[in-house]
Amino acid sequence: MAEDSDDGMDAFIDKFKTERYKNAFDENNWEEEFDKIPMFMKKAPENFDPKEYPDLACIQALVHDEDRSPEEKAQSLKDEGNAYFKEKNYKKAVIAYSAGLHLKCADEELNIVLQTNRAAAHFYLGNMRSALNDATAVKKRKPDHLKALIRGAQCCIELRSFADAVQWCDEGLKVYPADKKLLELRTTADKHKRAADRDARKAKAKEKKVLGEKEALLAAIKGRGVKLVQSSKPRRHSSDSDDEDEGSSSALAQLNLDGLSSKDATGAQVFLDEQGSLHWPVLFLYPEHQQSDFISAFCENNCFIDHLVVMFGEELPPWDTDRKYQPQNLQLFFEDEQKESLYHVDLETSLLKTLQHKRFFVKAGTPSFIVLVKGSSFSKQFLTGKRIQGL
After folding, report:
1. Which ranges in 103-179 belong to alpha helices (H)?
2. Can you give the pTM of this predicted structure?
3. How many other CB atoms sit within 10 Å of the CB of residue 25?
4. Model pLDDT, residue 65
5. Closest to 345 measured CA to CA, from 365, 375, 372, 384
6. 49-88 burial, b for 16+ CB within 10 Å, e for fewer?
7. pLDDT band at 235; cut points 50, 70, 90
8. Beta-bridge partner residues of 272
9. Who is most buried in 93, 141, 187, 300, counting CB within 10 A?
10. 267 dihedral zone (left: phi>0; alpha: psi -120 to 50; beta)
11. pLDDT at 61 over 70
């Protein structure tokens, strides 16, 4: 028998010289295959395929055996969640704790632990609202639960609900008056609450001041009879009479704060100075060269010539290659889009007098004017077919 056994072993060993062992690890990736054995795994795979990890799938099936009671399953899920939490895999921890809560087992203390732990996982994920909801639910089940009280206060601080954070701390301190964490959180929450209240008061005072300034500005504009419009082109009326009172026309926008906003990239806006004078952002257009100039603060009492002599003084703009744009050669117009007319403006006229004209409408908070060279070929062509009227 011994000889038969030896002969059989010899035959078995000799077989490996000609045939490979079918169940052996591959010599090229044996480490990867070795790591698929649950006993030797360094880390559990995420979202694994049971076919690829059959041994791990069997163990998991045992852990979540359908024959076990809801309490046993919930306990296993709690332990699984705790293991993920320890690894800082908070997403997986939330999934495990949620699955345990979904079982609605009869062990109330276990349910409280599951929800408290899920609140912690949500907190570390940055899901403050979900963490607060879990802490609130635990507090309803057990009003003196210290971890829930602390977590609720922490969430409120992160959500900048400082008054609520103080309330959470006060509720906890009634039960645990000497708890260091609650005392620390209350101090932090109260400090932030006082700062937030102070900032809110400042913001409200500033808003009130700005609103007052806007209202004073609108009153000044309205008192001068200047008409603001929001649309780029007022609605056409059937009457072309210059005697028409456009001040009450439905084509004009109501005087409001939005009508003062300039659409220019500079963000310039009409303002009222300490002496009670209005300063307007004004746009000059040069259609011959497709150029423009922008004056951010044109005082209403200044005449147009005051600015033009500066703009076209000793140094003329580079686009004026023919050196034609000199103050004495210039003509100024504003356009009445509704009547399709141009109104000639005397350069010695003040901005205020022009703005008070019955046919002048300030659009988007910025009066605009057309500048031409008197008698030039472009000027003659540009004015051809247009109705020209004077102030």
Report:
1. 108-125, 128-141, 146-158, 162-175
2. 0.51
3. 13
4. 62
5. 372
6. eeeebeebeeebeeeeeeeeeeebbbbbbbebbeebbeee
7. very low
8. 278
9. 93
10. left
11. no
